[in-house]
Amino acid sequence: MKTSTCDLVVVGVGGQGVILVSNVIGVAAVKAGYAVRGAETHGMAQRGGSVISHIRIGCTYGPLVPPGGADVLLALEPAEALRYAHFLAPDGIALVNTQPILPLTVTTGKASYPPVDEILAPLRARCKELRTLNATRLAAELGAAQALNVVMLGLLSRYVPIPEPVLLETLSETIPAKYLELNKRAFQLGQREL
Amino acid sequence: MKQYLLGNAAIARGLLEAGAGVITGYPGTPASEILETAATFAQPYQLHVEWSVNEKVALEVAIGASWAGTRSAAVMKHVGLNVAADPFMTLAYTGVRGGLVVIAADDPYCHSSQNEQDSRRYAQFATVPCLDPADPQEANEMARYAFELSEALELPVLLRPTTRVAHARAEVELGELPERSTSGQFEKRPEQWVMLPVHARPRHTALLQKQEQMRVTLEKTPWNRLLLRPGKLGVIATGISGLYAAEAIKLLDLDLSLLRIGTVPPPDDLIAQLLSQVSSVLVIEELEPVLEEHVERLARLHNPAVRIRGKKSGDMPREGEFDLQLVRNAIARLTALPQETIVPLKEAAAILPPRPPALCPGCSHRATYYAMREAFGEDAIFPSDIGCYTLAIPMGTIDTCLCMGASITIATGIRFGGDERPICCSIGDSTFLHAGLTGLLNAAYNKARLTVAILDNETTAMTGHQPHPGTGVTASGEQTKAVSLEALARALGADFVETTSPYNLDAMIATFKRARDCPGLAVVIAKQACMTNARRTGIRNRPFRVLESCTSCKACLEFGCPAIEFDGERARINELCSGCGVCAQICPSGAIEVIE
Questions:
Q1: Which of B107, B232, B503, B525 is most solvent-facing, going by the fewest CB within 10 Å?
Q2: CATH code assigned to A6-192
């Protein structure tokens, strides 16, 4: 039995734009006529830490996606994709930016960061479909690596029950005018990866 | 019209829709956005919205407004209510004139807090009503209703959202914003507003006499709702747990009665009705067994044979936050259905590096602590406080963190407790103004020999960069006087006061050494605007790079800035560099330079 239309978790590192992407999805889903429940990380955990944002489209219950319940895992960073992979439903889809961000535990030599392939293998085994791209590099080629979140939003657009024009309209209302053209191109780059 | 709103924004709207004229608070996760949202309405609607110096002050200002007949609210995180507990407890005796709502946001699981205390206990303690919303829409409606309830009972009302309500988002149906006027007039009522013993005794009696009216009024609110079904197990759940329970019952396809509750005290009649129809009942609530204890009392009257399952039976935890999986499994266990526990992948634990939160790239606190450690040595004692700077714990300069302002006082106690080693405690600017002043005064008065470092980044950074009395800006963005920390420290009795920028590492170390050698009470103000806040406002410094002359000594890596990596052969500065330049001062071979 399903108690929502589509459950998503958006994960990444504090500062990557997880909340912005989550909000665009949530606002757009409301515009598209859905009840939406979301939950996000604020405060201490945000500071460069691992963050997760929950979005439940077509849902009137609690805002947290249960483990094993996510239809889509949108990961802005590969290690964070694996950290939260257990949220995926068995028939879930994982969309992963392959550009690592090294945590302080790695840069200071206390831990090591595994090869990205080693991260993706168990993830691939866990879900129905895994799609990867280097969104950071694509965004950097546009001139703004920080637009990686919007590249990933473009990739996500085909996997959520929200009409693409509504997502783009919401993006336009969210992004400051001077960065809008760049972000629209970032969105299209992500879409084209399909 | 429906808007996709953060729970805290929905609460702020509720306060405004109810016509609140004075809204006060102190920043604290997960409550900060309530006042921030209200502040954006302050000028167009002529409200008084203020960041108060601390929560006690916030509540007392709100009380004054209420006694002048203006609806008011005081907003804080759960531990803030400890600070405001003194006025809160006696406010129940005096009562209110204009409706007064106290909002204390609880944080099960300590997402961003030092404890997970349950504010419903405060409502019980003060014998005032508490509303416990399940989602942003309810939180908005409860915020509005709380003023009516407050005026009907002439009592303060506690609104208690949890993190997953305050920081949830949902589409919220907004009401109209009323025309309002702050033309309050204080009425002299000494028998009510002057809590001399002779007045307090009858006010206590009056408070106790209001309890029955409170119970009856709350019972009829729409947030207490009973759905009776044939199953012999009943479920009672409060706040957000009601949503977890409803979804779990649906997923498990069970015929269970569900009583969802949104008030403290809870509705006796609905609980009694449920208890009379079931043989066992599962009570689902995060944190303390407030509801469970109430159900136990009612069961003795209405159905002594009923089996009560909850925290005391070990079916539900008393710590941490709940979610659908936890609640679903608890119900499945009691109905002989299979449980489903999905945990992180074993590969995740095996191969992934941990990613704890850390000080931002270019954070001045990192430089301050580096200098402090250089000057005081690792054997010194470093009591600390509440703020971003506790994230410096890997640097070895955070030895204690208890509550707002406790760095200076605990340092004082360590000294008088007999430890003769050097002591340098650290406290942020906002925290110092909140609860550090009295501790510094106490240390001066009682002749404590120690160094107090005020980490002045000119903002309340951890909670989202709110202004404070040192910044010269109010909550609604107006210019105001900026209090001098140096002048304060001198006035409170410090023997030594020096201000230095931690971005000048040598100067910072020298200042700390002079403070260390001071025979009395030294105050060092490490002043440097928060880099993350500066970047938010568009300020950019030139980034730095590592030259080929890098000898891979890793001195810069030990500094622990997220912008510095090691590529196997040499240090490398990544795109996170904010250009503070401190690593270039640390590099022993001069191999780090600014990119011109």
A1: B232
A2: 3.40.920.10
